[in-house]
Amino acid sequence: MPLLDHFHRPNSEDLPWESVNTLWVSSVVAELNRTLPHEQFRAFANRHLGSQVEADVAEFENLNAAHEGNGSIATAVQEYTQAALQTIPAIFPDDIEVQIADVMNRRRLVAVIEFVSPSNKKELAERKSFVAKCCAYLQKGIGLVVLDIVTERRANLHNELMASLGQPPSFPDPTPTYCVSYRPVRREDANVIDLWPTILKVGDVLPTIPLPLKGSDTLALDLEATYETALEQSGA
Amino acid sequence: MPLLDHFTSPVSLPRKWESFHTYWAAAIGAALNRALPPRFFAAVTIHPGGRIEADVAEFDLEPGQAENESGGGLALETYVPPIATTILDAVYPDEIEIPIFDEYEDGRLAAVIELVSSSNKHDPASRRSFASKCAAYLSKGVGLIVVDPVLVMRFNLHDEMIELLGHPASARMAPKSWMYTAAYRPTRRDDKNVIDVWTEGLQIDAVLPTMPLSLKGWQTVPVDLEETYMEVCQQCRLI
User: Fold this and answer.
1) Which CATH architecture has domain A11-50+90-233?
2) ipTM value of the model?
């Protein structure tokens, strides 16, 4: 099944990105939970669309926080009431992730698959925010895959991540659709990150890419199979 | 108890920052667990990045070796990825933090207190790395306090984060604020996403402040830095 352009006609109407993306995330979660040893690893979806449901990320200020959700009164805790010295604007970026946790090790996060959304690529501040999030995962040695099929914006978040690390770009400009696997590892007394950048093209079959798990092996992630499942479920 | 300089004499070697901050993180975690309702749990995470990186980035293992060596792991289908096309040098920063988890929300992270170490400020890559981590917490709406008593490295990591996120210079701290504490509360107010910020400079021989810790989905509680600092100074026989 070749990669489709979900942001322009005709597919933007019949197979819009929002719908296909949701089903693709589910398909990847299902596939990982089918193939990973269930006693050790668990994959789950983490989906927060920043611009639409920010309250899910940053709680509304006027919540009656002293009351717990079930109606009982919380333990009386002194509240800090002093006003902030400064208030700065915030961006809560879209978070569309598959997280893989090691349930035998206190649900330690071992890998994350980031599905890039259009808003992740929109403004400089949003791109910086996404790059910072990816850097934070890599600093903790968590395996990472960034998957970007957003054709309507030209930014390349991997190249921006490389720039933030003082590295040359991996992709020529413009490369709006791509995927990259990152494996933080310690080799020969040095800390390194192995990279597998791949250009994705509309009309091409999607590749199988490495999904590195912190403290374990590197898995094969079959993008094609999961994408096909998502399209089938979308009625394609 | 006035703040001591843990990075230069006369504070004796074993009581310098590396050892002291471990006690301090544990004391702050314990104080929070005493004060907060049972739904919250404060843990302590300490990874001295430059020394035990393998705790963060695993050693490069042959496929299948991970479960064999761990003894209790489970076998995965073997996959040998192609050789990486690019290999980057990586920085695994020191991590001395107190993450607070919310059991009502499936153990999600509600807040973090970061104790800065000298290696977090050592070079541009380390500073950027620390700033990225803080920015990532805030972008997920997690409350944050940064405590930076490192006088020997004359940088301000709050300013690094402000620059990283593209905020105007007016959001920076006063010049030469090398030691400071900052608290951040991501919130939504009047249909806008904002971060409330409290910053305070730290001074040697001055008393430490009480800072606000914003717990995601709950309220903001005071963290008395002075009380826990004094407790640890006593434990370390500095007073």
Assistant:
1) Alpha-Beta Complex (3.90)
2) 0.78
